Amino acid sequence: MKKYEEMLKEAIEKIPENVKKESRYELPQPQTNIQGNRTFITNFTEITDSIRRDPKHVSKYLFRELATPGHLNDKRLILQGKVMRSLIEEKIKSYVTEFVYCKECNKPDTHFEKVERIMFLKCEACGAKQVIRHI
């Protein structure tokens, strides 16, 4: 009969590498393009798909945080005005911190859940629920 330590060591060796990683979630860098008085985020749907959020919700957040109007066009987001890439990156990271990561276990496995008129951030990993602010 094997000792507990031996069985534990054997089990740890069988864990896949992608599960062992502390952070398995990588946010794509926004690809920005400034033309005239407009800023284009060409990989916007790629970003929203990776964080599993509605592009309308993310764009509304960015419009408010960057204090600039804009609109969604196919797979890209068009902002009225010249906005630096670093500022866009910062605002997307703040969105992810507030609306994607669980406040309890700090994992990105969450989704929105609406109960009556209140929106919750529900964690699929630990089951925690937090009220999120309306944008």
Walkthrough of the structure:
The protein has 135 residues and is of the alpha+beta class. The protein has 2 domains: 25-100, Alpha-Beta Plaits (2-Layer Sandwich); 104-135, no CATH class. It is built from 5 helices and 7 strands; from the N terminus they run ααββααββαβββ. It has helices at 4-14, 17-20, 44-51, 55-66, 85-99; strands at residues 32-35, 38-41, 70-73, 76-80, 110-115, 118-123, 129-131. The strands form 2 sheets. Strands 1-2-4-3 form a 4-stranded antiparallel sheet, with helices on one face. The chain starts with a helix and ends with a strand.
SSE arrangement, N to C? HHEEHHEEHEEE
Our Rg estimate from Cα atoms comes to: 19 Å
Based on the coordinates given, report the CATH architecture of the largest domain: 2-Layer Sandwich
Record field, number of beta strands: 7
Uncertain stretches of 5 or more adjacent residues? none
CATH class of the largest domain: Alpha Beta
What attributes does this structure have?
24% strand, 5 helices, 7 strands, 37% helix, 2 domains, four-stranded antiparallel beta sheet, three-stranded antiparallel beta sheet, 135 residues, alpha+beta, elongated, Alpha-Beta Plaits
Briefly characterize the structure:
The protein has helices at residues 4-14, 17-20, 44-51, 55-66, 85-99, and strands at 32-35, 38-41, 70-73, 76-80, 110-115, 118-123, 129-131.
Topology of this structure?
Elements: H1 4-14, H2 17-20, E1 32-35, E2 38-41, H3 44-51, H4 55-66, E3 70-73, E4 76-80, H5 85-99, E5 110-115, E6 118-123, E7 129-131
Antiparallel strand pairs: 1-2, 2-4, 3-4, 5-6, 6-7
